[in-house]
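Help needed: design a sequence for this.
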C-alpha cells in the first residue's frame, strides 16, 4: 500500500503507520525546515524507507493514480484560517481547497481512499467534497466531547457508484 501524507509538519503519523507495517509512505510539507527536521528524526529512528519531500499540496509532483491512500490531518484547516465567513468562504480559499482536493483525487488509484481529519464540520466540508469534479463516496464520523473533530473517508469510485453511495449515506 502506498500512502501520501499531506502537510506532515512534525506529525508522528508516518511513524505509527510504519510501525503497523505500512512502509511505502511519502510525506510532504511546504516548509523546508519541517521537512529537514522530519527527515532527521526518521533517520535517527531508522525509518529510512519513509520519503519526506518539500512539496506543495496544491500542485502535487506525482503522477496520476499512484497512491492507495492520501491523508491530511488538519492541513486543509490551514487553508480556511483566513477564509472569512464559513458559510460563504472567500473565493481564494475555495480555489485553494479545490486545488488540493483535485490533486488528491488525481493521485489516488481507482478505489483509493482520501482521509481528512479536520475540525471542519460536515455542513461546511460536504459542498466541497461533493463537487461534480470528484468520483468519490463520502462518509464521516465525529469524535471528541467538548471539541469535536471529524474523520472523513472519501473513496474514489466510478461516478455512478459515487452518486448512489452518497445518496444512501445522506438518507
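Sure. Designed sequence:
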Amino acid at each position: 500500500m502506498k500512502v501520501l501524507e499531506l502537510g506532515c509538519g512534525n506529525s508522528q503519523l508516518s511513524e505509527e503507520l510504519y510501525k503497523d507495517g505500512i512502509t511505502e509512505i511519502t510525506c510532504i510539507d511546504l516548509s523546508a525546515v519541517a521537512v529537514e527536521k522530519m527527515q532527521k528524526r526518521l533517520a535517527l529512528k531508522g525509518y529510512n524507507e519513509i520519503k519526506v519531500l518539500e512539496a506543495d499540496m496544491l500542485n502535487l509532483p506525482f503522477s496520476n493514480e499512484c497512491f492507495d491512500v492520501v491523508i491530511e490531518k488538519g492541513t486543509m484547516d490551514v487553508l480556511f484560517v483566513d477564509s472569512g465567513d464559513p458559510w460563504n468562504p472567500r473565493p481564494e480559499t475555495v480555489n485553494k481547497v479545490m486545488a488540493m482536493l483535485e490533486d488528491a483525487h488525481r493521485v489516488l488509484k481507482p478505489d483509493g481512499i482520501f482521509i481528512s481529519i479536520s475540525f471542519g464540520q460536515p455542513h461546511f466540508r460536504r459542498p466541497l467534497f461533493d463537487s461534480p469534479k470528484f468520483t468519490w463516496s463520502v462518509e464521516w464520523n465525529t469524535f471528541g466531547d467538548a471539541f469535536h473533530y471529524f474523520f472523513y473517508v472519501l473513496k474514489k469510485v466510478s461516478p455512478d457508484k459515487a452518486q448512489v453511495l452518497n445518496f444512501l449515506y445522506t438518507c
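The chain has a mean pLDDT of 92.
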